[in-house]
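[Meeting: bench + compute handoff]

Bench side (C.D.) handed over the final construct sequence. Compute side (W.E.) agreed to return the predicted structure before the next meeting so the bench team could plan truncations. Sequence as handed over:
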Amino acid sequence: MKADETRRRIVIAADRLFYEQGYENASFADFAQAVEISRGNFYYHFKTKDAVLAAVIEHRLDERKAMLRQWEQEDDNPASRIKSFINILIANQTKIMAFGCPVGTLCTELAKLDHALKSEAARLFTLFAEWLEQQFAELGCGDQASDLAMHLLMRSQGVASLANTFQDAKFVRREVDAMHQWLDQQTPSTTTKDMKRDQY
């Protein structure tokens, strides 16, 4: 097996283990076992657990950027793109109910540990916040775009946290539907002035 492929498999396995077990609980032995390589081979690729974490964060960023680009390529409507973001809660519902949000749980754990890479992990939230702000701006929300983006990010995180706590699939579905309705209400309506102007 080529070195690059082995490294990639380690990062993918570590990504899953950090999500399912938490950063502190996942060990080198877990990584090596998941990839079915020796400890020595593992240390050839990563000397420290923090090096694995840094690689996992970059991997997650790359995956999320690719996902956002795909949404942009598939749909010209910013509202539909935002709904794709909201629908992550449905698409990943089983995992979220079992382990929480992969971004939120990692950022929370690293913050509690005051880990040196906590700001790097926060880039995942920044990526979503900036992308959502762009979508709301394209939707015509003007100066409110940033606040709306943060509100939606906050709300989706709250749903993920409560879904993990209460294990209630119907709750997730209701909240996703409610967020869709909320989004529909954010589309700027035609002003009375514009309506009058159109009459002349």
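W.E. noted at the follow-up: The chain has two domains: 1-47, 60-189. C.D. will use this when planning the next construct.
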